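[job 4471] stage=fold_predict status=RUNNING
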Amino acid sequence: MIKVMHILSDGNIGGAGIFVANYAKSHSKDKIALTVVLPKNAAILPKLEGCCKIISCDMPPDKSFSKEAFRVLKEIIKAEKPDIVHTHGSLSGRLAARSAGKTKIVFSKHTLSNVPFGPSKIVLSAIGNLTCNAAVACSKAAAKNLLDCGTKKSKIRVIYNGVSPVPEIPDARAQLGIGEDELVFCIVARLAEIKDHKTFLAAAADANLPNARYLIAGGGELYDELVTEAKEFGIFNKCIFTGQLISADAVYNAADVFVICSKMENLPLSLLEAMSIGLPVAATNVGGIPETVDESCALFSNPGDFEKLSENFTKLADSGLRKKLGDRAREIYNERFTLEICTKNLENLYFELLKKRKGDG
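[job 4471] inference complete, writing C-alpha cells
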C-alpha cells in the first residue's frame, strides 16, 4: 500500500477539481491510500466525501503560491508522510513537498499557459524542474507547452484525461423546461473570456434556427454580460442560463449537440463527458481538442469565427448527421478516454516513480 496525496488549490469547481474527484472515485483502494488536501469550503468537497481521506485546511484558495499555503502544506506533508505528492495548480504544494522530505512529486498541467522568455523562463523552469519528478500533460498540446516553458522532456508524461460515462436521465428535458421537439445546443464551461460564449451566442443568432434552444451551463464573472448579450441578439427567449452546477448530467442528456468554442483549451473534461453520452460536437480546432475529436465526430471552426460556427449549427440540424457523428464520438470515448484507462495510466506512473533509485528523476 502506498500513500498518495493530491493537493488542489481551487476554491471553485474546475477541470482540476473534477479530475481529482474522478480519481478519488476510481483509485485502486487495495493498493493506494489516497488523501486529498484542499482549501476549506472548496466547492468540490461534496464530490470527494466517502471516496478518500480529506484534509480541508487554511490555505488561500485559487492561488498557486502563497507563504501561508506553503507553511500549512509543509506541516501536513510532514505529518502524513506520503510517498507521492500530486499537485494541481499548487506551486506551494510542490515547494512544501520538496522542503518536507522524502517524497516523489507529480504535477498535472490542466491548462495551457503563455511561454515565458528571458530571465523569467530561466527562473521558472528551474523551479519547475526542481519541484517535480514527473509532469503530467493531459494532451500532447500540454506536453509541448511544458517543454516550451522549460520542463525537461524526461519528466513529461502524456496521460489523457478520462471520465465516467454520463448516466442517462430520461426526464432531463422536463427538468430544464425544454420541449421534446426542440433542437438543443449546449455549452458546458465557466463563464469566462477564454471560453468565448460571445461567439456561441453570435452563431446562434446568425443561424436563426426556428426550433433551436441554447443551453448555457456554468457560472462565472461574465454571467450578467452574457445575459445582456443574448437579449441584444434577440435570442434570450431561446437561451437557458443554468448558473453554476454541481453536475451537468441533465444538460448533456437534454442536448442534441455539444459545443466548445474556446479560444484555447487543453483537454476539457466536458468534451469527454459529452462524447460518453454520444453527442456530436461543434468545436474550435485549438489546443488538445483536435487530439480528442476528429472530423468523424465533430465539425470544426476557428476561434471567434461565428459565421463558420453558425454554418456548423445549421448542418447539425440534420438528425442523420447528428447520429453518425454522435455514434462515432461514443466509440472514441470508449477506446481512449474512459476513467479506467486514465486511472490505470496514472497509477502506473506512481509505481514507476517509486521503483526509481533515490535521487533519480
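[job 4471] summary: The chain has 15 helices and 13 strands.
[job 4471] exit 0
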